[in-house]
Amino acid sequence: MPERHYVPAPQQPGLDLRQLAAAVVRDLLEQPGYHAQHLVALFQRLCPETSQRLSPSPADRRFQHPDWQQGITGYLLHCWLAACAQGREWLSGLQINEQERQALAWLGRQLAAASAPSNSLLNPELIARLKATRGHSLCQGMQHLLADLSLNRPLAPLNDDTAFHLGQDLATTPGAVVSRQPLYELIQYQPTTAKVQSTPLLIIPPPLNRFYLLDLARDNSLVRHALDQGQQVFLISWRNPNPSHCNWGMDTYIAGIRQASDQVRLMCVSPQLNLLGVCSGGLLSLLFQAWLAARDELHTLASASYLITPLASGLRSELLHLAGPRTLQRLRQRIWRQGYLSARQLNAAFAWLRPEQLVWPQAVQRYALGQTPDDRATLFWSQDNTRVPARLVDDFLHLFEHDPLTSPGALQLHGCPLDISQITLPSWHMGAERDHIVPWQQAYPTARLGGEKHFVLASGGHIQCLLNPADCQRSYYHSGPVSAGSASDWQHLQRVQPGDWKADWLAWLAPFSGDQQSAPRQLGSTHFPVLQAAPGRYVHEL
């Protein structure tokens, strides 16, 4: 198994929360005139006689009740919208450094979401519900709250845990587990065409989530769509680790990808395969390719595709804006004590990135209105996270803190210094226009990655871009080769194209997929017999 080794890299500048708060307060005290100017502007906006009534976005589900447009509730909503807008203007012109600005922006979003009038007793939906149920809804909400407290739930659940069943409602594409290892199961899917491409496709999902987002339902399954276009599709289903697996790190997962890719090539009698990495699975794919390049074994791959994968330098996300070295060290210590990052901790971290969508509306619905959440497949998947081994968390934090891929040899695996400029494979990359986890500029491949590169900017957010049906009329994308220049320069050169990005990807992939041949009649092979029907065992493990 490859061993991980880090060459010391210069520490990135960072402040802990206490230091950051002190720096922000100091900078704020130095600009009293600026604050007074915006305070006056806010009062002018709040005055109904001198300002136009503000309205929320039609897509904001929190304010769909008609009473939000009139009376005291309408004015309350106007005041909140005015304060949010003025706060954003105040922050944009504030004379502070970028780290402080990002931290204040994050805190501002948390404050805005928490103080939304939809969370108050004046919520007209709450008042109407109390009248209609004669107060029974509030009693039901208290029962929900007590039940969640007894289960130690940190947040209101997004979905009923029993709403869907894997293999019956979700992840229904026919296939079979053809290899089961301590780290993963390898799933081979049943071809849907008489002829298939000779070069197989191996999908590497993120180790933070269950794989079935890529096979959620028949009409939006990426796996099924690739099968319908004649691809031979294999997929890695990562195991849900327990404390005994705390030392599973990037080296472990990359070794697993190596083993799975060898198995796929043997089963298909193919000298090469195509890789498709999704989110953090794309990062693992990138490191795997760099390791192969260092060993002169890159010829076993034909191409690499990346979906919403953070590749740009400065991989720091919103999750790390308030985290300095001491904070991250405490996080590491806590995770190592546990042996893993728990699924609940991961769910909470992602939920607080969008509290106006994933925290407060659910709390109002469940505890104030006394209602149960709607059964939605996407939300069911989003709260079905897995644990992440302590070593893998540590390794990802190292990437986010130091970005060693910018310096050839700063990261080593099994004695091989990694240099992504030596990856000469043709690559296809997709970023999402409204991605809040991996901003599309971070998914844009930089010049230090070798090989010919093609980039697609798809409509939608981090999850929705993967789920739009191939024939979705509302979807659009930009597509074009990557050349010198920034991501913004690239965007200005591309035209908007209607439709979904999958057709663009499969058209790009076709030249690297080999000749057509008859589809295999049976899954697996003599050396890799069918062990279990898809979606397998590991995806069910709690």
Automatic annotation (TrEMBL):
Gene3D superfamilies from the UniProt entry: alpha/beta hydrolase
The protein, known as: Polyhydroxyalkanoate synthase
- GO MF term set: acyltransferase activity
Q: Single Gene Ontology BP term?
A: poly-hydroxybutyrate biosynthetic process
Could you tell me which residue ranges the Poly-beta-hydroxybutyrate polymerase N-terminal domain spans? 60-225
Q: Which UniProt keywords apply?
A: Acyltransferase, Transferase
- Report the source organism: Halopseudomonas salegens
**Pfam families linked:** PhaC_N
